[in-house]
Structures are given as C-alpha cells and as structure tokens.
Description:
Strand content: 5-15%
Oligomer: single chain
Helix content: 40-55%
Amino acid sequence: MDQFPVVTVDGPSGSGKGTVCKRLAADFGWHLLDSGALYRVLGQAALRHGVALEDEAALVVLAAHLDVQFIAAANEEVVRVVLEGEDVSDALRTEEAGHAASLVAAIQPVRDALLQRQRDFAQPPGLVADGRDMGTVVFPAAPIKIYLTASAEERAHRRYNQLIGKGNDASLAVVLADIQARDERDMNRTAAPLKPAHDAVILDTTALSIEQVLAQIGALVRGRYAR
C-alpha cells in the first residue's frame, strides 16, 4: 500500500481538469498543485524581490525555494494562490505577470529547478497535481494517473460560455481555432509533449458532467486507499 495518494490529472485546455482538481483536493482535504500557474508565480516572485528576469542564477534559486500554496476551498469558486503568505491570485492574471512568466519559462535551468519544486508538493495526506505532464514527467510513479480529454468542439463551447458569462466578447470560431492551435503546439513540442501516461486512466469528458467525472476518479482513489 502506498504511503499516501498522489493523483495526477493531465489533459488539454478545456477538458475540465482545473475544476476537477480543485474539487478533488477540497473533497479529500489534500494538497493541490496547479503546475500551469507556477511560472506566473515565479515571475511574480521575481518582480517582488527585484530579481531581473534575465538573471538565470537568481531565478534558479528563487524557483527552488518558491514559497507558494494553492488553496482549494469547497466554498470558493476558484483556487487561491498564496505567495509568501500573501494572496496573489488577482496579480497573476495581469499582463505583467503573463509577460514575466513567458520569460522565465524559456530558461531551462529554471524549468529544472521548478521540476523538483513541483515534486516537493507530494506530501501527506495526499496530492492532486493538475497539468499537462504531471503523469509523464513530474510524477511518473504516481499510483493514480488520470488523463482528461474532450472533443475540441466541446472544449471550445465550454471556453466560449465561460468568456460570455464573464461579460467578454467572444467568437466561437476563434475560440475553437485557438484551442486547436494550442493542442497542436502542446502535443508536438519537443519537451514533455502532451500525451497520456502509458498507465493513465483516460476519461473522455465530452458527454460527462463534472459530478460524473469526480465520481469516477473518487471511486478509483477510494478503491486503492480504502482503510
């Protein structure tokens, strides 16, 4: 029996993994890793500490010791990101944070340092890891690996409805094209391409509700870790 659970949830944009991971972590009371936000967090930490975004050595140190938590509360709609004790969730959504993230993510030693930092999230009582290479690269020995997918058309509809719901103008055709282009990049990149781990459970969420997806993953977890 494993000491404690590590559940990886990978998949393309719009497959539902963010919502599923938040709910799983909240329901089981486990730690949460939102790997997609880490580069924005690192960029924010660099801006906060006056570290130049081209200072590779200083960024590596910052990445290796990044003091960040992802808080998945059952009564909150979104995951809160806490950097050095301060909620930086809103700051991470700014253009400045996005620009900083793109710069630091291009530095391989920084990526290497963040790889170990991600692995350090695996602590009792358990971890839910959300990303694109959690089961293939970051936690290849994770006991439970999930790969969520859905048709590009369904994922585009979800993203479109999300944008419209927030009062943004959006074109379904443009959203679909963006998702298809992102899939192409993610699946064909040289480093850690998006693909299911060889032992992952693949769930197509096209026709499934979040509750149905959670029920299936929850059954897997309880089946393995039933006391």
